[in-house]
Amino acid sequence: MSFKESSAGMITVMTVVAIIVGSILAGFYQMVSPRIEANRLAEEKRAIFSVLPEAKDYVTIDLEVGEGDDKESLMIFRGVDDDNAPVGYAFVSEGPGFAAAIVMMVGLNINTEELTGMKVLEQIETPGLGNKIAMEPFESQFRGLKIKPAITYIKNKKPESDNQIQAITGATISSVAIVKALNKTIKVLMPFILEDIRNPVVIERQVEEEAVPEPKEEEK
Predict the structure, then answer these.
(1) Cα of 150 vs its chain's centroid, Å
(2) How big is the CA angle at 208 (ends 207 and 211), to the nearest 5 degrees?
(3) Sheet with 114-122, edge to edge strand ranges
(4) Alpha helix ranges (H) inside 159-213
(5) Which of 100, 129, 167, 189 has its CA 20 to 30 A from that of 84?
(6) What residue ranges do the domains of the chain occupy?
(7) What is this structure's pTM?
């Protein structure tokens, strides 16, 4: 029996192949990861302006929420107008859906205590049912939605109050997952948003202004 046909030989060959394949995959990931991150940031920026339509720019505020093992890093985005005056806040909310986590960007008008928009960023809910949470008819329900009292939902009929959305027929779990995630995130972030209103954190704006080209010298 040759070495390659022996158990030790097969294990050695498989190990070498695994190392080579792993190295190739690791190298490929390192090559594409900057592009993936750039695309993610671009999508995040588009989502912020989508849920804060009055914003001309925004600043990112990093937060540390919780204590000990429960501590986690979160962010809120303060939308501002051309004069740097706040027009609302955006934040990411995440919760378990029917198939996997649902991630969304949410806009909030603190003065009117209502949402200015909701955009689903990630979801793999059931096609034709749960994935309707990422479609305009469902997302549009969150524009102007009151957050006090807590957001709720209703099934098989139109909302009866300004803090209520209509769940998607046949996809109640996905609809409820969004409602629960929003209420939980708003409760956690509201103290930080109110504190930022009282004592605004001074941070550089995110959107870079286009550089004005210097006038060319006249040819002599």
Answers:
(1) 21
(2) 155
(3) 57-65, 72-80, 86-96, 101-109, 114-122
(4) 172-198
(5) 189
(6) 1-47, 90-198
(7) 0.75
